UniProtKB/TrEMBL annotation:
EC nos: 5.1.99.5
One annotated GO molecular function: amino-acid racemase activity
Catalytic activity annotation: D-5-isobutylhydantoin = L-5-isobutylhydantoin; a D-5-monosubstituted hydantoin = a L-5-monosubstituted hydantoin; D-5-benzylhydantoin = L-5-benzylhydantoin
UniProt enzyme class: isomerase
Family: Belongs to the HyuE racemase family.
InterPro entries: Asp/Glu/hydantoin_racemase, Hydantoin_racemase-like, Iso_Racemase_Enz_sf
Protein's name according to its UniProt entry: Hydantoin racemase
Top-rank lineage group of the source organism: Bacteria
């Protein structure tokens, strides 16, 4: 089984950290690879960043489909940028880390809170909760108010702020679990859970396990309806290379 992780931002060190965290959770026999787009934002902290990064996600899926051999993809940004368009491009399952984390959190608790990086990205998470049907499960969206790249550049200070916010969520929100709201927090789950004392769900690991399950069950992205392959058509300007897309319909 080959699962490919796409980090939608262009920070290679974060891609490597996400890759390492996923490999530690992968089952025996599961190969995990990872990549990031060649162009785009170095971190994703706004609607604008998400729109630009979604193009990079699509390009990485197209690259994977042309090379072949990938059984499932993971979009490793908590905004799940470009998730549905990525699903249009392949029969392989494509899992967003926010949707995966929400699903798993509801299996172990009736209510959870999200602890994310910046307050403005919490609004994006709120939109996703509504879209995915999990709004009534989430008590509160909390922000540690740290830039995403602080997870790379100032890891100790960032970890301290995240733990502090998780403890507030535990003490004030009447919840059973915490969802970590950033792909850059991959690999921190066990440490944070030890500090906080309640279950902590991190999206990269959740997505990896869901992807393994879907592949193991032989389930693929449905091509009946809106997730069918996009109709080939001309594209202009910088997107001309996407014209008359011919995808391997395996």
């Amino acid at each position: 089984m080959h699962i490919h992780i796409i980090n939608p931002n262009t920070t290679a060190s974060m891609t490597q950290a996400i890759h390492r965290a996923a490999e530690q959770q992968a089952s025996s026999g599961t190969r995990v690879s990872a990549s990031q787009p060649e162009s785009g934002p170095v971190s994703i902290e706004s609607h604008f960043d998400e729109v630009v990064s979604a193009v990079g996600v699509a390009e990485e899926v197209l690259k994977g489909e042309r090379e072949g051999g990938i059984d499932a993809y993971i979009v490793a940004c908590f905004g799940d940028p470009g998730l549905l368009s990525a699903r249009e491009l392949t029969r392989a399952p494509v899992i967003g880390i926010a949707e995966a984390a929400f699903h798993l959190a509801t299996l172990i608790s009736t209510r959870f809170s999200i602890v994310t990086t910046l307050g403005r990205t919490g609004i994006i998470a709120e939109h996703l909760l509504e879209q995915y049907g999990f709004r009534h499960h989430c008590r509160r969206i909390r922000a540690a108010e740290i830039p995403v790249l602080d997870l790379e550049h100032h890891p100790d200070a960032a970890f301290k702020r995240i733990v502090e916010e998780c403890c507030r969520a535990r003490d004030e929100d009447d919840i059973g679990a915490i969802v970590l709201g950033c792909g850059g927090m991959a690999g921190l789950t066990q440490e944070i859970s030890r500090e906080v004392g309640i279950p902590v769900v991190e999206g990269v690991s959740a997505a990896l396990k869901l992807a393994e399950s879907l592949v193991g069950l032989g389930l693929h992205t449905s091509k009946h309806g809106d997730l069918d392959y996009p109709r080939p058509k001309p594209f202009t300007g910088k997107f001309a290379a996407l014209s008359n897309l011919q995808l391997p319909r395996k």
